[in-house]
Amino acid sequence: MSATAVLRSEWIKITTLRGTVWSLACILLATAGFGILANATLGGAESEERDFDPLFSVLVGIGPGQIAAIVFGTLAVSSEYQSGLIRATLAAVPRRGLLYGAKLVHVGGLALAVGLVTTLVSFLAGGAALGDRALGLGDAAAVRGVVGGAVYLALMALLAAGLAAVLRSGIAVLGILIPFVLVVSMVLGTGSSAGVADYLPDRAGQQVIYADPPTDVPPLAGLAVTALWTGAAVLAGWWTLRRRDA
């Protein structure tokens, strides 16, 4: 099959699976919904706190939204292994690198597109709730947060996709990544290992959604750290797909 045909077939797979479609929708619902709810509930009260960050306040929903991104990336790769259809897929597309690359293009592209809509909606809606304390869309930190937040969501989806190619089990991937981003980073971030926790993929990447990051890791450097983690997972998935039988 040609590269165009493989891309088309992978697009059809991803966009017709109910699990992947719903998880994409949940990126928007969880991120924007949580952010809007948090700002509507707190109103301007939070802006009076000393450690108030106007960018993080409106993009706070990226925390729960990343769970949906992880689920999306996991299902996009693991569903074929769970159903057994991977054998037919590899028979039709023996060039495993091409197949894997097509999956990743769609996972990353869709997560980024939905992420951009999500972060923009969150920023505008949260800013309306904050009023005078909100950043303007033309502010450099705002642009970095909106675009960087979308890139972060895409990287987390790709991280999950790479790990799914290694483990070939959606349950295993979700059982590792979801507790990791919900518990491990939080626990390490409050103890003597806080410096190490700053370089974990979720904690490092989320520095981009702060106007004044709470760690010593600069926002774009933190996003680069997440990209390195994602790159390692993607390469491991590629190596596994090439070496193992279906």
Write the layout of secondary structure elements.
Blueprint: H1 3-16, H2 18-42, H3 54-59, H4 62-83, H5 86-92, H6 96-130, H7 140-167, H8 170-189, H9 194-197, H10 201-205, H11 219-243
Helix pairs in contact: 1-6, 2-4, 2-6, 4-6, 4-7, 4-8, 6-7, 7-8, 7-11
How is this structure best described in words?
The protein is mainly alpha-helical and about 250 residues long. It has helices at about 5-15, 20-40, 55-60, 60-85, 85-90, 95-130, 140-165, 170-190, 195, 200-205, 220-245. The model has no long low-confidence stretch (mean pLDDT about 85).
| Oligomer kind | single chain
The helix/strand order is HHHHHHHHHHH
User: Total strand count, please?
Assistant: 0
* Termini gap: 19 Å
**Arithmetic mean of pLDDT:** 87
Uncertain residue segments: none
Number of helices: 11
Task: Specify the helix fraction band.
Answer: over 70%
User: Can you summarize the main beta sheet?
Assistant: none
Any idea what the shape is? globular
List keywords for this structure.
246 residues, 0% strand, 11 helices, mainly alpha
